[in-house]
Design a protein that fits this description.
Bacterial Protein-export protein SecB, 8 strands, 21% helix, single chain, two-stranded parallel ribbon, 178 residues, 34% strand, alpha/beta
Length: 178
């Protein structure tokens, strides 16, 4: 007959490990691992009246661009979803995808860490996938669209308790100046 789990009485079940608090983007990078990239939509529609010119090459996105974001906390990690929709004179193209991260231990994320990780890491992870999806989908309808590089802060995640704007770029969330 075995001994109870570290002094716990029989029938109490196993001891639940305490969660680690993740307060900075650096800690989030250490705690999370990318496990999957998922797509929810890839779509392109060409306006019937649009006729490309013979010498027309790549189109840089320049019309109406809508970027929508969302995140989800899970017991074992975080998901970050980004949807980019372009409305151009030639038509419309959309790519909607997510990056799924898992934590190796029981973690609790501070809101600032979620926002900063989403904007500094997850956005930069998903963007190349979205860019490729938009380029491939638009090529299939006869118009090759190339998304330009994005600058830091263009893709934002609204996280309750954290003001919108540029993410905190200092280690461990310390934004004080000396």
């Amino acid at each position: 007959m075995g001994l109870p789990d570290e002094g716990r009485l029989p029938g109490q079940g196993p001891r639940v490990s305490e969660s680690v608090v993740v307060a900075s983007v650096e800690q989030a990078v250490d705690a999370l691992e990318l496990v999957k990239v998922e797509f929810y939509a890839i779509e392109a529609r060409r306006n019937e009246e649009y006729v490309p010119l013979e010498d027309e090459d790549d189109h840089l996105a320049g019309g109406e661009t809508a970027i929508r974001t969302a995140y989800r906390r899970r017991d074992d990690g975080l998901d970050f979803r980004v949807s980019i929709t372009l409305e151009e004179p030639w038509g419309r193209v959309e790519a909607d995808g997510a990056v799924i991260y898992a934590a190796s231990e029981n973690v609790e994320f501070e809101p600032r860490a979620i926002k900063d990780f989403g904007e500094m890491v997850a956005a930069m992870t998903i963007f190349p996938y979205l860019r490729e999806a938009i380029t491939s989908a638009s090529e299939r309808i006869g118009v090759r669209v190339v998304l330009p590089l994005i600058k830091r802060g263009v893709i934002e995640f609204a996280v309750s308790g954290v003001p919108s704007g540029e993410p905190d770029s200092t280690p461990d969330g310390d934004d004080s100046s000396e």
